[in-house]
Amino acid sequence: MDLPKHDLLIDGKRVPPGGGDYSTDINPADETPIARVAQGTAEDVERAVQAARRALKGWSGMRAATRGRILYRFADLLEAHTEELIALESLDGGKPLASVRRQDVPAVIDTVRYYAGWCDKINGQVVPTRPDALTYTVREPVGVVAAIVPWNFPLMIGMWKMAPALACGCTLIVKPAEITPLSALRIGELALEAGVPPGVLNIVTGKGSVVGNALVAHPGIDKVTFTGSPSVGRGIMQGAAANFKRVTLELGGKSANVIFADADIEAATRAAASGIFFNAGQVCSAGSRILVQRPVYDEVVDRLTARAKAIRVGDPAAPGTTMGPVVSAAQMKTVLDYVEIGKREGASAVAGGTRIGERGFYVAPTVFANVEHEMRISQEEIFGPVASVIPFDDEDDAVRIANGTAFSLAAGVWSRDIGRVHKIAGELRAGTVWINTYGYTDVRLPWGGSGDSGLGREHGDAAIENFTEPKAIWLSLRS
Ligand code: NAD
């Protein structure tokens, strides 16, 4: 069977890759090939950067309200193509259709509308300095942006970067993850259809070590916005230093979900289960460490075990499926290797711990009990459906364990004591803290972490700052 062939999107046109190579994109649900995807080269990056540089003046110089109108039209087109985007995202990444419908696509549309509204509100200030001068600031687009996107939320994380950059008047080259490139190519086409001019939004698919590297090294790129693993993020920061590109990094997590004995245990365990098993645990803010106060430890382990066993793992397209496969054979191996590490370290796998079936990359929802804080399964990001349940004694102990990894992306705290939850929220080292809930994100709130979780924030007005440079202007009033 002839597979659909996907070319690059450069300067408003679908073009074959310079080297003529295509990779085979695999459906993680059944391991069948679904498409041939262009493997971009450094020369393709060069062409895309030139196109983005040429398009910069027209896009950034456009009336802000007109740019906003184009982005609103883009959002409307995305909405009109909801079913197609849901199908594509589910097929490429193995996400259950129902969860893409409920979360990813609505969030993508919301993100575009939110930043469309920003276009004509990116103001400067008049700043009083001296009586004989008018001094004011403007915010100018940072320039040409490289957006490097991971595979766990290709549409949503891609749009978290594209929408604010476009609103600020920047032009972009987007590099989707090699294994989930399909939705980015499609939304690039829809952006063109909405009236985003050719060259403003270019999509170059291919390997991180080729396309990603070439983007980071290219002197024509002014900013890199990256979401992915800490090790690649470190390399990007080093590479960007060559010409002092601006860098925003959203990296990994090992988030703690802290459950005190006085919490609503039913609500806490329900949220803790979805906090780690949603998207098969492939979530940067997954609550992969569930910290439980000792008096309720056994009860929480039992409830989590029951919930893990009740999850309907299977075909993402089937109604009723609540968890699909992990994204690739490599990711499945990583997760199963960690399960073995956990067992060797002395933790008890009370649920899951195995592959399901022999076709498709399905891993059973896994709960480890008797986990100690120092174990590797408690310290390292697994990025799969594996919960480590760790006991604690009191508030100090909880905060010590919660803050005791290299990450700081997110955390949750559960208690009916309102004073306690505020105190603990203040003490947790995390970019986001959820109190008596877990996992929500909204483009209006800052998102990101520090340490191994990254550098800078996305969303809200933080993203507007990321994609603009302030300029101070002096006008003499002396006659
Ligand atoms: P990854 O770092 O392997 O890849 C991310 C992207 O970087 C891909 O597009 C990849 O092709 C590209 N890349 C790889 N090598 C590169 C190089 N040398 N130069 C430039 N680009 C390169 O990460 P992944 O496996 O796709 O995603 C999983 C990771 O992403 C996890 O660690 C997860 O926690 C993190 N993540 C973080 C957030 C967040 O918001 N903080 C969100 C989602 C995922």
From TrEMBL:
Principal EC category: oxidoreductase
Positions of region (Disordered): 1-20
Gene Ontology MF terms in the entry: betaine-aldehyde dehydrogenase (NAD+) activity
Active site (record annotation): E250
Name of a matching Pfam family: Aldedh
Keyword Oxidoreductase: yes
Basic and acidic residues biased stretches: 1-14
Aldehyde dehydrogenase domain boundaries: 24-473
Protein EC: 1.2.1.8
Keywords, comma-separated and alphabetical: Oxidoreductase
UniProt record similarity statement: Belongs to the aldehyde dehydrogenase family.
Record protein name field: NAD/NADP-dependent betaine aldehyde dehydrogenase
Gene name, Swiss-Prot/TrEMBL: betB_2
